[in-house]
DNA sequence: TCGCGGGTTCGACCGATATTGAAGTCCACC
DNA sequence: GGTGGACTTCAATATCGGTCGAACCCGCGA
């Protein structure tokens, strides 16, 4: 049973997640990732940080805000297991599908400017 | 064959589409809707304007930007017919589904931190 | 003719999502 | 125990998607 430690620097997490270090700090400020501080006040992230950020970026593409993503991630325990990630993944995909379905339904419900007499 | 005229004021379009008049002007600036001007320099929109804006708002919910939406709408002719709207609707839903699929695929492709030896 | 409820432009401001730069600190390696 | 690269904070800047207010214009009805 390996204890997942807080060992990654902001730069390492940035490299592993494909975003700028400034974005990693931004995500920490907004609760997408968590960090502890060294004696010298530097951030140290755990293994899940890069993962969280990669997932967050994908979720942003389907219209979720950073706040919404942080809320979903708030349900993750420390050192998330595959089952925890699976649950989060499903929540995100379900939300994306719900929004797409809402788009489709509302589009379908529109009367498309069918002015009576126009097609008659 | 009714010729669709430019008759709606900003306020009318705003009311019909459920957004503020300032937003209608914003959408015009960004190519989501088009307007002609009266002698007195006032905007006049056609019937499709409110429709475009309602659709645009839905599309924003699934992560499309105003620019992307404007590009899709750029394919609409003047006085769009139901078939034109159907094509646009399909393009938007398809894009939303593609983004959701990308999210799901990338989530599925992740190794979920399965560190060798951890589950052993 | 006057009033007034719209419309107009323009620029300031907002919140979200970051990026950049300055000034200073930390720490890993030699 | 240096040195240099990576880290820190804070403020400014940028883009996106709007909103608001000021100051002004336009047309309609009393």
Automatic annotation (TrEMBL), chains A, B:
InterPro entries per the UniProt record, alphabetical: DNA-bd_dom_put_sf, MerR-type_HTH_dom, MerR_fam
Manganese among keywords? no
A GO molecular function assigned to this protein is: DNA binding
Residue intervals of the HTH merR-type domain: 9-75
Keyword vocabulary terms for this entry = DNA-binding
* Claim: DNA-binding is one of the keywords in the record: yes
Database matches in PANTHER family? REDOX-CYCLING DRUG-SENSING TRANSCRIPTIONAL ACTIVATOR SOXR, REDOX-SENSITIVE TRANSCRIPTIONAL ACTIVATOR SOXR
Q: Protein name, please?
A: HTH merR-type domain-containing protein
Taxonomic source organism: Paractinoplanes ferrugineus
Q: What is the lineage of its organism?
A: Bacteria, Bacillati, Actinomycetota, Actinomycetes, Micromonosporales
